[in-house]
User: Fold this.
Amino acid sequence: MKRSKMLNVSFSGLSLHKKVLVMASIYCLIAVTCLLFITKKGKGSNCGIFDLMADIGGLMGSTNQLMFLIVAIPLIVLVLIQCIEKSERGFSVVKMGSRFHTWNIHVILTIYLSFIMTSFLLVISFIIAGFFVGFENTWLSYKGTISKMIHNQEKFESIVAHLFTYKIILTIFITKFLGFLMISFLTLFLKQFVKNTALIIIILIVIAGLDGLGTLPFSFFSWAASLNIRNWINPMITVYHCIYLFIVSMVFYGVTGLLYERKDFLS
Amino acid sequence: MLNMEINRIYKRPVFWLLILVGLILALWPVIQTWPPHVVTDRYYVFYPRSAYVSWMYFISPIYYIYVLIFPLLSALAYSDAYAEDYNTGLVKGILTRIEKKSYLLVRYGVNFCVGGFVATFPLFVNFIGEMAAYPLIENNYFFGMALVKQDSFFPELFYNHPLIYTLVRLLLVFLLGGMLASLGLAFSTSVKNRYIVLVFPFLIFMVVDILTATINEKYSLTTLFLQNSQGNRGIPFYLLVGIIGSFIWYYIAGDHNETI
Assistant:
């Protein structure tokens, strides 16, 4: 099968589930708006757009840990599994020709879904947060949250170059994209052993919860894709987290691909 | 019909898996707070420690994970039974033997009880475990038991009748679990995809919780039912709307569904 055709099959696979996508978008919109509102309530009047989007605590905000627990995990699992189950039906598998092609279509779908979801999340977060507090990047000023948190003018001046609007947006985009990608690949991996969607969500939420509680001395799941003050003071932490998320995604890609080579679609 | 339902539940691997998950969630905090570890209490803050204050409902970090998966625990146990019967055609076999209305009623009741039981199980087992570790000392506000304060859920009941307080808390959690399981069951009359049915209560719980937390945190579902905070009219309101609403939806839609 040609690569361009595989892309088309993947995209059409996603677009077949219009109802699911519309419901997921509405759910995402409501949840993100509420998350932004709750973050704003906790912050008071002196907060900027990025305080609402990526709160420096790492938990609140529309792109941090709570978003992963409430929005990303349930939606990714639901949408991805709906699409996969459809493309693994007898007729579709026969049409694909080989297990390798079927698996690659899932992978393209996963990347596509992660990209769409990240873009959607970022756009609606930016617009709604902008309507709440204005579009000005307050993190650049001395009165901003990061400057107040650091409480050291020299140190703040040394990191202010990392806080330009485009850099913050790019950082949020990359970390969220890789986070969604890892969740998607883990979902595909778990799907090989667990048929029940709700059980997969339980497993992922428990892992995310354990990560949030700091069970291990390092972030190993969604917390690695969340951004807190340490990420902005030392951007290398973000780079390490991104590399970690990418490697974990690739490991799940490889292992699940191997499992797919032996998969019996008839059973 | 009732016997058949009970037999079916016993034979469901997912039910036993949820019980196992519940046991892990319940016993992990007990192991963490077993008596030799009590000296790790900073400044003996809970001294003299009792089972009432050691209960995971008040102090365990694991409780945070339990709260997150609570709607899934309650729905996963049996909410998809109607959709399963419908998809496999089993409903035809059942309805040739009993009336449709009694089938619907028994199914609703069993699903409610199973959902509530699975959701309450970790809290109940944890309390039993804490009772094995610590004595049931009478609660005293001035000696290490100031967890339930003026703005908490019925503080007078906690200090005067702690066991009744614990049972009331368990009953509320049971009703919430049953309500969420019933919502899943009612939804299965419209959508026959079992996996969407199982996730529906979770999504509804999250949306209602986050919406109410945005408007007025006092009325948030988590705050009212699963946290140590003041009770208000929201508790009966949610329960009545959820239980009666899901029952009417399920009963009417189920009765209209063409099965044979």
Q: What stands out?
A: Residues 2-140+151-256 of chain B form one domain.
